[in-house]
Design goal:
The complex is a heterodimer of chains A (351) and B (76). Chain A contains eleven helices and 13 strands. Helix content of chain A is 33%, strand content 19%. Chain A folds into three domains: 166 residues, Rossmann fold (3-Layer(aba) Sandwich), CATH 3.40.50; 28 residues, no CATH class; 125 residues, no CATH class. The model of chain A has no long low-confidence stretch (mean pLDDT 91). Chain A has a six-stranded mixed sheet, with helices on both faces. The longest helix of chain A has 17 residues. Chain B has a three-stranded parallel sheet, covered by helices on one side. Classes of the chains: A alpha/beta (351), B alpha/beta (76).
Chain lengths: 351, 76
């Protein structure tokens, strides 16, 4: 790392002093030297670095004209050749946060280290958080000075190409990556230590971050089942024999697939199999695959007019060990397809 | 949703949960005669449709009537 690093800073129209929401259509601009919070950044860098240029843009403009904006950021990076990019901090501002993460991604693609800062549930973190280094912040801009100190600490470490440690040590929002490490104490001893700390109200760091699940409002009941198209979705990993789409099981499960069942009254053993390895699949695979997808029963109800029809394709996911974030993405994808195809009800078979 | 382990989806907030048979044979039971087995699958499917037509405000379990009392033969 050079003795004094060259920093390019990204901020929005508000922090650049141009205006608030009234100026959020401001196209992207580039100026030499620091502006707004960049002055504090420059001052705090002291003899460790200098803010050589500032890129700023209206929040709406940046995300609505993403290709143009990212192109201009790239031009600025090639022109100024900074050793480090600092974006924000964006606090809880969603479009600003998104712009900051896109600036950091553009820098990373050019091999330039980059750091930003925002709240953990900012849209930027949700969209691009896995790929970039983001210092977690609160919502209060009065914390600007301490956040800049923390962004400098992480930024200098990134610029020096030092190995970055775990999120909790090096102060960034976790990327969701687990690495195997060797601890001095065995798991049982550490578990007892944690239990004691918990009982005594002392601080400790758990190995696993427990997720809070989304709270979803129950959809209203179906009023007229005889006019309803019902789709089937199984997490048992039912696929055509030979698994033509290469569905992976367990923690490798990453995609949903759909298969045409128009005119099919029951799944046959010769044509279908389960590729889920989280349980003994031999009953689905050697006795009856319909146990994972009750197609014969739904066809019977369709023939009786109890439902209007069974949707022409069924959906298949391999459920075992699938991370929640991946499951959410798959769920969103299936839901979009169901809405597009005018399906009003879904029965999810979850093993 | 049909689940062999309803306590799991109910605990994370799934709204309409139908009790399935077992993880290895969710919507049927190979120890039954083919006729009884088809009847069981139909009961589960009808329970699912009933759940879809029921107003719920919190995670709710729907149990198909008359599950077999017999211990399945493959359970070893």
């Amino acid at each position: 790392m050079p003795a004094e690093i060259r920093v390019l800073h990204y901020i929005n129209q508000f922090f650049a002093g141009i205006g608030g929401e009234d100026a959020n259509d401001l196209p992207i601009e580039i100026r030499e030297g620091p502006i707004g919070p960049g002055r504090l950044l420059d001052q705090k860098l002291g003899d460790r670095g200098t803010v050589i240029a500032t890129v700023f843009s209206g929040d709406n403009y940046f995300v609505e004209e993403e290709d143009v904006s990212v192109g201009k950021v790239r031009d600025a990076l090639e022109r100024f050749k900074p050793d480090l990019v600092v974006a924000g901090p964006a606090f809880d501002a969603g479009r600003y946060g998104l712009a900051c993460t896109l600036v950091c991604q553009a820098a990373s693609e050019l091999g330039i280290p980059a750091v930003t800062g925002m709240v953990e549930d900012n849209a930027g973190v949700l969209a691009n958080g896995k790929d970039i280094y983001t210092v977690p912040t609160g919502e209060n801009p009065a914390d600007m000075a301490s956040i800049i100190d923390r962004m400098i600490a992480l930024g200098l470490k990134l610029a020096s190409k030092e190995a970055i440690g775990p999120a909790v040590v090096d102060d960034y929002i976790p990327h969701g990556i687990r690495r195997e490490v060797i601890r001095e104490k065995a798991g049982a001893e550490r578990a007892v230590d944690m239990a004691l700390a918990l009982a005594l109200g002392k601080p400790f760091i758990s190995d696993i971050k427990i997720r809070q699940y989304d709270v979803v409002t129950a959809p209203p009941p179906i009023q007229n089942m005889a006019e309803t198209t019902v789709a089937l979705l199984t997490t048992a990993g039912i696929v055509p024999r030979g698994n033509p789409d290469g569905q992976r099981d367990g923690a490798g499960a990453r995609k949903w697939v759909s298969y045409d069942i128009e005119g099919v009254n029951a799944l046959t053993l010769g044509e279908w199999e389960s590729v889920h390895s989280g349980f003994k699949g031999y009953i689905y695979n050697s006795v009856n695959p319909n146990y994972a997808l009750p197609l014969p029963a739904l066809r019977g109800l369709e023939a009786l007019g109890v439902i209007k029809k069974v949707h022409n394709e069924f959906f298949s996911i391999v459920g075992g060990g699938c991370p929640v974030t991946e499951a959410q993405q798959m769920g969103r994808g299936v839901a979009e397809r169901l809405v597009r195809d005018g399906v009003q009800a879904v029965i999810l078979e979850s093993t | 949703m049909i689940s062999a382990l309803p306590s799991v989806p109910l605990s994370v907030g799934a709204h309409r949960v139908i009790k399935g048979v077992r993880v290895e044979h969710l919507c049927g039971d190979p120890s039954l005669s083919p006729e009884q087995d088809s009847e069981l699958m139909l009961r589960i499917a009808r329970t699912a449709l009933k759940a879809l037509q029921t107003e719920v405000t919190e995670p709710t379990l729907f149990e198909p009537a008359q599950f077999t009392e017999k211990e399945p033969a493959h359970a070893h």
